[in-house]
């Protein structure tokens, strides 16, 4: 029996996952929005506090991923490429500002499992994002004046829709800080054995080679829509800020786990 | 923060799962097959032994599921209904014969997560099964002489195909024992923190109200096909036995966890 | 080059379709509803009039299909089985009452193409329907007191949701007439050559062996929801009537074409 | 009743299609291959002859599309963006060399219907293609030395897989001619009314603004795999040539229809 995650198998090829380092390159559409401190606090466990700002981010990301330990992520684009939609709210962890992802959806099984073991609360969804085109009129070029859209559906319900109309090129340093802050997740595996406690810990990912490339900013729209399967639609947006289009990349090498207060 | 599994949310409605008891009603197409003891042993962790027989089962199941704690499983068929394809091999656990599911695929997120926390090594797949029709010529009635087919694809590859041509009605007692034996799973959550061990334990589900309804048996075919993402296609079938069509039901109330030898 | 529909190929196996007769066996959840005569008229071409009644039907159907000319519909359940959601409004054609399907969604390519050539305005969608269970508590048995639900999503938007809570067994003769009335479709293939007119004709299917099996009726709910890709959500339901659960079957042997007034 | 294709509706918003001009911008992975003249002839109708060369192309394309008449193609990326996989073989039409697409698969309903009315024999499939990344190690940059992969599955079967390992930048003029040759399709709508002939004509698209951007070439691999639903796997590749990665664009303004010999 070999492998690194379920299912284990004689050669270890059936495992959904292989170990880090995991490499990520992505194109993101991100929109700043604000909620009240009470609203943000209600999305955090009791042992995490709201950060200094109430600035949040809604992000659509189109990822390519690779792992030194699994050539299939590159050899089969169906395995390594995927899209995600999520929100990040400000918190504090390990003595500094951090991001927290209360809700996230993904369209790829490997990324779903890779997230679950880190504490990302990933659910399956359908994510669509405007691609920049190189030439012609089939879509927008990556240029000021053009509009880029992201949509998220899950369980057949439209959950989130955002758009960014580009007004200026910016430097990577002008991207919103929440895009690059370390994130604190809650790794949690429920138990159905009354004598076995759930696996439960806070976890901060260890990232290296975090980089941002060509970035643009602009005006934005953002909607959260209701579904009986979600609470994203309950969030009260008090202000929608700027929108961004950017190329980003990073490598995940591991995580630092911290005790979490039992629910 | 409320809920029972990730993601936690203010009202607890975002959680993929709610706690047991979980109720299942299903229609199954099952095919007996044999492999060598060596082949079966290679699918078991070191601390589980091959059972007395080398009879295995390939199963396609069309499930309806409910939970006392989540009315949405019934209110939205997209949430509670799903299909699975899996194989069961014979082992021993807790002093008696048991089944072990080395590989299983499912087409529903709730069932995927519900399986993962039990130790079912569930992956996502596309499962199709012949439905019995009530009247007309659009499909086969549930009658002797008719053929029922199951197919499984994952990552765009056809992985398993089975057919059963019914030759006789049987009593539920004549169904293969592996269909109802307790199963021993390995609950496993990898860790990317070198200071945190993976969650790792064997787990036997506690089932009540296990029942089988109308059952038929017949001749069968079974194929496992290759994929670079799986090892199902490596399994050497030495004999295909009978096939079965049956209605089954059960309630899962919890699990009994047992130590597992570290990999 | 052989085949019966695109794509043609040396052996004729690549064609999406083979010729009728086509056989259908299905389970339907149907809900009666009324709209104003003006609303119904707005869903009909100028040369079709509103029928005597303003009673309409919303239908979710779980089909098994077969063709004498294509054994693959039965051999591969992925090819022959599918679900549909649609509405039927009352009109008149060929001297008598008829049904008209202004909107219909299907989750199977063969059924999509089979519909298009008949004039069914089929679009792709995701349809989920409560299945009756044989035993256990995973879902409802086909019995008075139980509730059956249908949902339709397309392009990631929830478009239609219906439920029926069964109150009585009925005879097939008590099913709503629109379920079995002949239907008049408009077969239409647009042209992008200004010198070539679109293919355009009304078409009534020729059905044989129309049959209904076990049927139940009950109270119902019905919702149409908005989407920028559809006009279903614009329909003004003035009354929701009874709901039905029934097994039905039929064989389609051909069609009778009639001239249509150019748009 | 308004609209341009089925379904017609009061406002015309339900139609799957709106009229040309249609604009396309895409990224393609293309692989040259050869088959015997007999093999190519077997893929053509009797009234089309094999071209001068036996060079063919297998193409994976990631498209963005727009229409002057439908802003939703840009406003909702789910509507306007899609992927296709297809092969092109050499023929002659309208007095000159032309391409013919015997088989093509697409993952978007609008593109499926848009193709059908032109005579493209489009079927639904799942297409995955390596995306070039801007930075980081999650995927390959668009640079010499890197490998790009395309995969096609339909009906749960892997049908085609290609890879290109880039060895040199080339000028657009060095791209294979079949990529830009006019194509001759067969517009065909079967009839189930014995008194109505199928709609049947050859059709050549009228394209403007055909352009190619940054292009690279390299070594390639190509596989066609078997499925009971297709004949792609029967094609006998006698030689695999170069592979290409390129940005292309065009506008379709209409078509010129020509009589086709009845099958």
Descriptive keywords:
homotetramer; mainly beta; Acetoacetate decarboxylase-like; twelve-stranded mixed sheet; 9% helix
What do you see in this structure?
Chain A has 263 residues and is mainly β. Chain A has a single domain, classed as Acetoacetate decarboxylase-like (Beta Barrel), CATH 2.40.400. Chain A contains four helices and twelve strands. In chain A, strands 1, 2, 3, 4, 5, 6, 7, 8, 9, 10, 11 and 12 form a twelve-stranded mixed sheet that branches. In chain A, helix 4 links the parallel strand 5 and strand 6. Chain A is globular and about 55 Å long. Chains in contact: A-B, A-C, A-D, B-C, B-D, C-D. At the B-C interface, strand 1, strand 2, helix 3, strand 7 and strand 8 of B face strand 1, strand 2, helix 3, strand 7 and strand 8 of C.
* DSSP E strands of chain A, number: 12
User: From the structure provided, what is the oligomeric state, counting identical versus distinct chains?
Assistant: homotetramer
The SSE string of chain A, one letter per element, is EHEHHEEEHEEEEEEE
Beta-strand portion of chain A reads: over 45%
Find the biggest chain interface. Answer: A-B, 66 and 66 residues
Under CATH, the topology of chain A is which? Acetoacetate decarboxylase-like
Low-confidence stretches of chain A: none
Query: What is the CATH homology-level superfamily of chain A?
Result: Acetoacetate decarboxylase-like
- Which structural category do the helix and sheet elements of chain A fall into? mainly beta
């Amino acid at each position: 029996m070999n492998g690194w995650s379920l299912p284990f198998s004689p050669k270890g090829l059936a495992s959904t996952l292989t170990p880090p380092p995991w490499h990520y390159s992505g194109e993101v559409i991100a929109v700043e929005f604000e909620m009240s401190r009470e609203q943000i606090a209600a999305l955090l466990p009791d042992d995490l506090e709201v950060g200094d700002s109430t600035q949040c981010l809604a992000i659509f990301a189109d990822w390519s991923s690779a792992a030194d330990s699994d050539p299939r992520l590159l050899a089969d684009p169906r395995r390594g490429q995927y899209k995600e939609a999520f929100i990040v709210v400000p918190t504090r962890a390990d003595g500094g500002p951090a991001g927290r992802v209360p809700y996230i959806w993904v369209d790829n099984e490997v990324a779903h499992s890779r997230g679950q073991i880190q504490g990302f609360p990933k659910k399956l969804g359908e994510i669509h994002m405007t691609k920049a085109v190189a030439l012609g009129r089939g879509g927008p070029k990556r240029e000021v004046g053009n509009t880029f859209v992201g949509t998220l559906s899950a369980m057949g319900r439209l959950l989130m829709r955002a758009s960014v109309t580009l007004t200026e090129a910016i430097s990577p340093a002008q991207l919103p800080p929440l895009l690059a802050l370390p994130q604190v997740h809650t790794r949690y595996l429920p138990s159905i054995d009354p004598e076995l406690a759930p696996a439960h810990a806070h976890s901060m990912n260890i990232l290296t080679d975090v980089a941002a490339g060509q970035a643009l900013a602009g005006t934005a729209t953002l909607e959260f829509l209701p579904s009986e399967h979600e609470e994203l639609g309950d969030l009260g947006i008090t202000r929608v800020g700027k929108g961004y289009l950017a190329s980003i990349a990073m490598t995940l090498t591991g995580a630092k786990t911290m005790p979490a207060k039992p629910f």
